[in-house]
Amino acid sequence: MIIPAEQTSTATSREALDLLLALVGDYCEYGWQRDDGFSFVALAGDQVAAAAIGLPLAPGDRAHINRAIRNNHLDLRQPAALELAHTLREQQPTGELFALAVAPEFRGQGLAKALISARLTAFQDAGFQLAIAESWINPAGGQSAPLYRSLGFTEMVAAPGYWADERTESNHATKGCPSCGPLCKCAAILFGKDLTC
Question: What global pTM score does this model have?
Answer without folding.
Answer: 0.89
